[in-house]
Every structure is written in structure tokens, then in C-alpha cells.
Write a structure and sequence with these properties.
- The protein is mostly helical.
- The protein has one domain.
- Helix content is 79%, strand content 0%.
- The chain is built from 7 helices and no strands.
- Helix 1 packs parallel to helix 6.
- It is globular, with a radius of gyration of 17 Å.
- The protein starts with a helix and ends with a helix.
Length: 195
């Protein structure tokens, strides 16, 4: 890949990865509600799951949407339904702390699997492959996946730390409820923007 194309890819990756979306909002809520250590598997699942999603989309899954257009509609319906369920779970999360037994952070496997129904992840993956690997060569697809993985570590970590930084402020039950309902509303809004 030419240096200018790599710079453009990196810029696209930074902007699309750091802006609010389902992954970032859920990681912020997880950092606030469960802390860093308990949220690390969630963060790792996002990064690894999106890495493999980019590889698989780039290696041919993209063609399925062209061959059978209803598959994209089915994906949208499943994505919206699952994200609404996740928003409900965030809205009902308990107060931060070790005594929190009502909720738990998303696991590595759950976060990895979520990438396949995340509307923003699909938008990012399809755009990145279309723009930066139109030839669909494996080396280009792998490079895109690696660039997004490195950026993903920084972006997901930043959002999780932002959640942790307001954890003390959320010690009030009223503020925690407002935060969780706000995060749930932003999550629902993020799917509307991605669709």
C-alpha cells in the first residue's frame, strides 16, 4: 500500500474508531459500572472480533450482500434488535463496586460476536474494504485489519478509561441511573445514525 493510502486509511480508522458508537458507548458504561480489570475481556473481544470481521468480510463475505440483497436487510433487523436489548441491559446496570452482582460486563466471546450485529462495525468494515482494498488482495486486507486493531486498542481503551474516570461521580444512585439511561439512549441513537 502506498504511503498516502496508508495515511488515508489510518485517518479513516482513527475518525471511525474514536467516534461514539455501540462498542465505545458500551465500553464507557462498562468502565464506569465494572472498572478496568473486569472490562478488559470486553475490550479485547471488540478488538479481536473486529479484526477477524474485517478479514472475513475482505476475503469474500462482502460478495454475499451483492449476491443476495435480502441478507443485508436481515442483518439490519438482527442488529437493531440485539442492540436494543443491550441498551436495556445498560439502563438496568447496578452501582459500581465489588458488590455488583446484578450485572456483569460483556465477555470476550460476547463482544467478539457482537461485531457481527453492530451496525457501525459493518459500516466501517464495508467502507474500509471498499476504499482501501478494492483489489481484495490478502496483504491489503490484512494490513487494514492490523491498522484497525492497533487503533481499536487505543480507542476502546480511551472510552473505557473515560467511564472509569467518572466512576466516583456515579456513586450517587440518582446520577448512576441518569448515566446508565443516558448511555442506553446514546446507544439507541448510535444505531439510528449507523443505519
Amino acid at each position: 500500500m502506498e504511503p498516502q493510502a496508508l495515511l488515508a486509511l489510518t485517518s479513516f480508522g482513527v475518525v471511525s474508531s474514536f467516534t461514539p458508537g455501540p462498542n465505545n458507548l458500551m465500553l464507557m458504561a462498562s468502565g464506569a459500572n465494572f472498572g478496568i480489570v473486569r472490562s478488559l475481556p470486553h475490550m479485547a473481544g471488540v478488538v479481536v472480533g473486529f479484526f477477524f470481521m474485517l478479514l472475513i468480510v475482505g476475503l469474500g463475505l462482502f460478495g454475499l450482500f451483492h449476491a443476495w440483497p435480502p441478507s443485508f436487510t436481515i442483518l439490519k433487523v438482527v442488529s437493531v434488535a440485539y442492540t436494543l436489548w443491550l441498551a436495556w441491559k445498560i439502563a438496568r446496570a447496578d452501582a459500581p463496586g465489588a458488590e455488583n452482582i446484578k450485572g456483569r460486563p460483556m465477555s470476550f466471546l460476547q463482544a467478539s460476536a457482537f461485531q457481527w450485529v453492530n451496525p457501525k462495525a459493518w459500516t466501517m468494515a464495508l467502507s474500509a474494504i471498499t476504499l482501501y482494498a478494492p483489489d481484495e488482495h490478502f496483504a491489503s486486507i490484512l494490513l487494514i485489519s492490523l491498522v484497525f486493531a492497533l487503533i481499536g486498542i487505543a480507542s476502546t481503551g480511551s472510552w473505557m478509561l473515560a467511564g472509569l474516570s467518572i466512576r466516583g461521580w456515579l456513586s450517587s444512585r440518582r446520577r448512576l441511573l441518569a448515566f446508565n439511561y443516558g448511555m442506553a439512549a446514546l446507544l439507541v441513537g448510535s444505531i439510528a445514525m449507523a443505519l
